[in-house]
């Protein structure tokens, strides 16, 4: 049986302490029993198949439908950001709605996103030296090309998680916690985040690692994540959960960006809460407390939207003016012309 993998500590951290905190919970590795979720059709032939798992939950967390192995642990990646934002609000973070939406974002790196991260820092007497995330180019293709044409390089504020990291540093200032080293899993901020995620998911972390931006990353099941998103989406506006979800719905352009499917989904369906994550994650919460969690096993980003739209249709979700329908046809091109589609497989038949 495979042994737990080693955990990489952030630069400057106590490597031994960091690894010890992780290996105490890391479980032996096993690939979940995923099923076909998405097919790539080229001129009538199934050219490729994306496997994965998914689950839709009701307002009480009960399973409405599922495919694959939704109770297997996985790393939710950036779909954890709204839950992390709830922890920060509970710890006293108080921001304008557009900046709180940026706190929960995997933003495209547009000027408004980068300026928003700097605003969060400035409001709390900080500057970019307080950021402890990794450096990167803007995530959005158009934003990245514009950034490079201007002669810019990779930076922390351009990285898609900079809003979250600015708010984490700000929350440390608010509570009198050390800003330096605030990504270490034993820092009071990260202990609070972990406890909040455990509460919202109703599930202890099965393993811990480090996300691409340097933040502690906790493994949970799709089932638990769907429950958490349903809880966020249905929360009263006066609660931390409600404050975060309301900010994301009011400013979907800050959660992702123009031309991004997460932004389009929230604009298309009033009250819908959506967040993606690297390695093929899609989470959705509905105002009636239902939740949806999807994991594409190969991490293929092109597969998220077709299966998300198919699952929303199964839940009876319709958009204003047919906006969802306009997102539903992912084309396969040959010589610059459409020769096929990327479509959801009959995943419910596998259950």
Q: What's the arrangement of secondary structure elements?
A:
Layout: H1 15-23, E1 35-42, E2 45-57, E3 63-67, E4 73-74, H2 81-90, H3 97-103, H4 111-123, H5 141-149, H6 162-175, H7 188-201, E5 208-210, E6 216-218, E7 220-221, H8 222-234, H9 240-250, H10 252-255, H11 261-268, E8 273-277, E9 281-285, E10 291-296, H12 304-314, H13 323-327, E11 330-334, E12 337-344
Antiparallel strand pairs: 1-2, 1-12, 2-3, 2-10, 4-7, 5-6, 8-9, 9-10, 11-12
**Derived structural class:** alpha+beta
Report how far the terminal alpha carbons are from each other. Answer: 28 Å
Could you name the CATH class? Alpha Beta
Task: From the 3D structure, determine the CATH topology.
Answer: Beta-lactamase
Question: What share of the residues does DSSP label as strand, in percent?
Answer: 15-25%
The helix fraction, in percent, is 25-40%
Contiguous low-pLDDT stretches (5 residues minimum) are: 1-14
Shape: globular
Biggest β-sheet strands, sense, barrel: 8 strands, antiparallel
Order of helices and strands: HEEEEHHHHHHEEEHHHHEEEHHEE
């Amino acid at each position: 049986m495979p042994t737990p993998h080693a955990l990489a500590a952030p630069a400057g951290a106590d490597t031994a302490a960091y690894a010890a905190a992780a290996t105490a919970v890391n479980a032996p590795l096993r690939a979940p029993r995923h099923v076909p979720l998405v097919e790539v059709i080229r001129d009538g032939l199934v050219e490729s198949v994306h496997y994965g798992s998914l689950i839709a939950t009701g307002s009480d967390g009960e399973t409405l439908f599922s495919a694959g192995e939704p109770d297997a642990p996985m790393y939710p990646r950036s779909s954890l950001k709204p839950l992390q934002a709830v922890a920060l609000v509970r710890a006293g973070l108080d921001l304008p709605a557009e900046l709180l939406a940026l706190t929960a974002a995997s933003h495209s790196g547009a000027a408004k996103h980068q300026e928003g991260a700097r605003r969060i820092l400035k409001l709390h007497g900080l500057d970019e030296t307080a950021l402890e995330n990794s450096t990167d180019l803007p995530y959005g293709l158009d934003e990245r090309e514009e950034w490079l044409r201007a002669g810019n390089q990779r930076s922390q504020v351009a990285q898609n998680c900079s809003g979250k990291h600015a708010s984490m540093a700000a929350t440390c200032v608010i509570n009198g916690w050390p800003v330096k080293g605030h990504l270490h899993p034993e820092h009071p901020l990260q202990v609070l985040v972990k406890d909040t995620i455990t509460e919202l998911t109703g599930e202890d972390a099965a393993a811990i690692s480090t996300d691409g931006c340097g933040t502690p990353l906790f493994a949970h099941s799709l089932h638990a994540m769907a429950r958490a998103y349903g809880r966020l989406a249905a929360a009263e506006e006066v609660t931390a959960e409600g404050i975060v979800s309301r900010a994301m719905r009011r400013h979907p352009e800050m959660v992702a960006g123009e031309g991004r499917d997460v932004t389009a989904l929230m604009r298309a369906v009033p009250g819908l809460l959506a967040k993606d994550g690297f390695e093929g994650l899609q989470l959705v919460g509905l105002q009636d407390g239902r939740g949806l969690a999807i994991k594409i096993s190969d991490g293929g980003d092109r597969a998220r939207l077709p299966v998300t739209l198919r699952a929303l249709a199964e839940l009876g979700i319709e958009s204003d003016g047919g906006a969802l329908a306009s997102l539903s046809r992912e084309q396969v091109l040959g010589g610059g012309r459409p020769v096929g589609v990327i479509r959801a497989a009959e995943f419910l038949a596998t259950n």
